[in-house]
Amino acid sequence: MSAPIRVLLADDENLIRSALRALLSLDETIDVVAEAATGDEALAMARAHRPDVAVLDLQMPDRDGISVAADIHDQVPGCRTMIVTSHGRPGYLKRALAGGIGGFLPKTVSASVLADVVRTVHGGGRYVDPELAAEAISSGDSPLTAREADVLELAAEGAPVDEIARRASLTPGTVRNYLSSAASKLGAANRHEAVHVARRHGWI
């Protein structure tokens, strides 16, 4: 019998993380070897434990699972990654697939599906939730440039223009231009409405 698939779980919600661990423990081919509550902790655990598969929450307090996956790919090359999320917006899915993430599925999946996807990803395959895939195809690509998306994401936190400028290493005037351009592209009346539209599509 082959060795169990060694899994890292990362989710900032203890209840969710415990539930995922309980679900995966039902499968004797899978062994959860480490857990993390933040993105940075997940990366540290991946380096320390060298798991076969990292199951990452999309949105953690310090950073998103997609950027964590990119760092894991760089620093722990043998570890494959997958995203389990309650925020399955199309834009996130496209970013995840572009970043080489092997699985993208909602937290509502059954224990058997979750275990099957872990095995699929471990074997070098890819799994995307069918409903999320259909939404991604129908939503189209983001009209925002990377810089516009960055600035809009900072605006989503409610930061004033001067603070956004400082954090993005831009001038306040440039920030206003980016916000105005983003709002125009999204057909929004102001930056708050632009944030809402972009988030609904998963573009930020």
What does this structure look like?
This protein is an alpha/beta fold and 204 residues long. The protein folds into 2 domains: 5-138, Rossmann fold (3-Layer(aba) Sandwich); 146-201, Arc Repressor Mutant, subunit A (Orthogonal Bundle). It is 53% helix and 15% strand. It contains 10 helices and 6 strands, in the order βαβαβαβαβαβααααα. It has helices at residues 14-25, 39-49, 65-75, 90-98, 111-122, 130-139, 146-156, 161-168, 172-185, 191-201; strands spanning 5-10, 30-36, 53-57, 80-85, 103-106, 127-128. The chain has a 6-stranded parallel β-sheet with strand order 2-1-3-4-5-6, sandwiched between helices. Strand 1, helix 1 (14-25) and strand 2 form a beta-alpha-beta unit. The chain is elongated. It starts with a strand and ends with a helix.
Please name the CATH architecture of the largest domain.
3-Layer(aba) Sandwich
Mean pLDDT over all positions: 89
| Strand order, sheet with most strands | 2-1-3-4-5-6
The number of helical runs is: 10
Count of folded domains: 2
* Integer-rounded radius of gyration: 18 Å
Give the tally of β-strands.
6
Specify the overall morphology.
Answer: elongated
Beta content comes to 5-15%
Main structural class: alpha/beta
Provide the CATH superfamily of the largest domain.
Response regulator
The CATH class assignment of the largest domain is Alpha Beta
Please bin the fraction of helical residues.
40-55%
CATH topology of the largest domain: Rossmann fold
Low-confidence stretches: none
SSE sequence, one letter per element: EHEHEHEHEHEHHHHH
